[in-house]
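Submission sheet (multi-component)
Chains listed below:
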Amino acid sequence: MIEELIKRRSCRKFQDKSIEPDKIEAILKAGLLAPSGKNKKPWEFMVIDNREKLEAIAKGREHGSAFLANAPVAIAVIANTEKTDVWVEDCSIAAILMQMEAENQGLGSCWIQVRNRVTPDNIPTSEYIKDLMSVPFGYEVECILAFGYKLKERENNNIDDLPIEKVSYNNFSNSYF
Ligand SMILES: Cc1cc2nc3c(=O)[nH]c(=O)nc-3n(C[C@H](O)[C@H](O)[C@H](O)COP(=O)(O)O)c2cc1C
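Outcome: structure written.
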């Protein structure tokens, strides 16, 4: 696992190549295997591979989402917020598991934040996406994950330069040493 975590970097530039259906299926299985509070599984995953829809969703934020227009596939992580008060945590866990399975499948991915973000016209990005994708009342959108074959490999994370001062034992301390 550590080896995969060292390799995982956000990827925002993708090859013009579609993703095999079995790889998308593996990514979705990783999400569906995610643990959730009280096992409520409030999430649902919407796969988007329609170019016009990807382009429209890419316009859902002023910054930080334009690259989605050139991604082959995205998965919207949405939740039925009436099921649980920990849907944000549940969706986040499912999302990172899907990103890690993408890495395992030789693909790149990037998280696009939706919750608490707005469109250039100041409409909540979540409302904009729900409207585009006919999401029913009672759901919220946590994030959109972009997936594709990486255009180029990015530098690995550095295992020898981790912010180890963020770790403390028994009592809070912001210095490990
Ligand atoms: C909660 C969260 C929200 C993020 N939102 C965006 C986003 O809206 N757009 C984007 O391009 N990247 C987004 N990212 C990716 C981060 O910018 C990226 O993970 C961070 O800079 C570390 O880089 P790395 O993933 O290459 O290690 C988000 C990541 C997380 C975990």
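Remark: The chain is about 30% helix and 15% strand.
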